[in-house]
Amino acid sequence: MLKLALLPLLCGCVLLVDAPTSAQQPQPDCKEPQTQTDMTICAGQDLADADKALNAQYQLTRKALKERDAGASTPNLKGGEEALLKAQRAWLGYRDAQCVSVGFQARGGSMEPMLISTCEADLTRKRTAELKALVDSLL
């Protein structure tokens, strides 16, 4: 009787040990994704790349505004860094909310996460360009 009770537990343990980890999962070919899962994974990777570029540009822009603030001759010419921080926080809220609304095109479906990630990546690239333009205008 005890053997019968332990059998499901042992089988479950074997399944857990034999289950592939995410590191073992093959990465999709993002040049030509074949399944919706692949498209969603690729959209997430695209967002991660766009976010990395945004973070790098944000740091450059923040540094430029901080230096400008430090060199300002009067207090009313300072505040660029603080304004950037406020704008960036507001932009993040806008991006996330906007992209959730875009996701409603496929609400509850397997495409929804891909639509959201694609929207976030697109808006993130646009924001990166805006931050670069801001720095360029300071030079």
Can you offer a commentary on this structure?
It is a single chain. The chain is mostly helical. It is 75% helix and 0% strand. The longest helix is centred in the middle third of the chain and has 36 residues, at 36-71. The protein is elongated. It starts with a helix and ends with a helix.
Radius of gyration over C-alpha positions, nearest whole angstrom: 23 Å
Q: Output the CATH topology.
A: Substrate Binding Domain Of Dnak, Chain:A, Domain 2
Shape: elongated
Oligomer: single chain
Question: What is the helix content?
Answer: over 70%
Question: Which architecture would the CATH scheme give at its second level?
Answer: Up-down Bundle
Distance between the termini: 81 Å
Order of helices and strands: HHHH
Main β-sheet description: none
Give the total of domains. Answer: 1
How do the helices and strands line up, and which of them pair or pack?
Blueprint: H1 2-18, H2 36-71, H3 80-103, H4 112-138
Helix pairs in contact: 2-3, 2-4, 3-4
Question: Which terms summarize this structure?
Answer:
Substrate Binding Domain Of Dnak, Chain:A, Domain 2, 4 helices, 139 residues, mainly alpha, single chain
Concise synopsis of the structure shown:
This protein has four helices and no strands.
